[in-house]
């Protein structure tokens, strides 16, 4: 128990709930069906090139780690995920 009367367990539970809610708000991990349809229209060799060519602010040019998501933004497919090298968040808009 801390001096302010709050237990460490309560703080940990609160932080975990807030992180989970934040992830849900951002929709992380959810691919939009329309984006997936558009993504599949792109030839496979081009899709591989797009996934292997992203910009990471930490590492420079890198590729997406497995587990990326697809969304439609401004009539284009947006790939969101993590850098395969350092794990930082990366995104790419495919027009």
Structure description:
It is a single chain. This protein has 95 residues and is an alpha+beta fold. The chain has 2 domains: 1-28; 31-94, no CATH class. Helix content is 38%, strand content 25%. The protein contains 3 helices and 5 strands; from the N terminus they run αααβββββ. It has helices at 8-26, 33-41, 44-51, and strands spanning 54-56, 60-62, 69-73, 76-82, 89-94. β1 (54-56) and β2 form a beta hairpin. The radius of gyration is 18 Å and the shape is elongated. It starts with 7 loop residues before the first helix and ends with a strand. The mean pLDDT is 83.
Explain the layout of strands and helices.
Blueprint: H1 8-26, H2 33-41, H3 44-51, E1 54-56, E2 60-62, E3 69-73, E4 76-82, E5 89-94
Antiparallel strand pairs: 1-2, 3-4, 4-5
Short account of what is shown:
With 95 residues, the chain is an alpha+beta fold. The chain has helices at 8-26, 33-41, 44-51, and strands at 54-56, 60-62, 69-73, 76-82, 89-94.
With strands numbered from the N-terminus, the spatial order across the biggest sheet is 3-4-5
Q: What is the N-to-C order of secondary-structure elements (H for helix, E for strand)?
A: HHHEEEEE
- What's the helical proportion of residues? 25-40%
Rounded to the nearest angstrom, the radius of gyration is: 18 Å
Largest beta-sheet characterization: 3 strands, antiparallel
Could you tell me the mean pLDDT? 83
Would you count the extended β strands for me? 5
Strand content: 25-35%
Number of helices: 3
Poorly predicted runs of 5 or more residues:
none
Shape: elongated
Separation, N- and C-terminal Cα atoms: 54 Å
Give the assembly state of these chains.
single chain
């Amino acid at each position: 128990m801390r001096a302010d009367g709050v237990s460490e367990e309560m703080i940990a539970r609160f932080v975990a709930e807030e992180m989970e809610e934040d992830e849900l708000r951002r929709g992380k991990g959810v691919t939009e069906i329309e984006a997936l349809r558009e993504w599949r229209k792109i030839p496979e060799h081009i899709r591989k090139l797009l996934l292997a060519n992203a910009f990471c602010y930490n590492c420079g040019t890198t590729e997406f780690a497995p587990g990326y998501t697809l969304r439609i933004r401004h009539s284009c497919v947006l790939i969101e995920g993590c850098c395969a090298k350092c794990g930082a968040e990366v995104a790419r808009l495919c027009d």
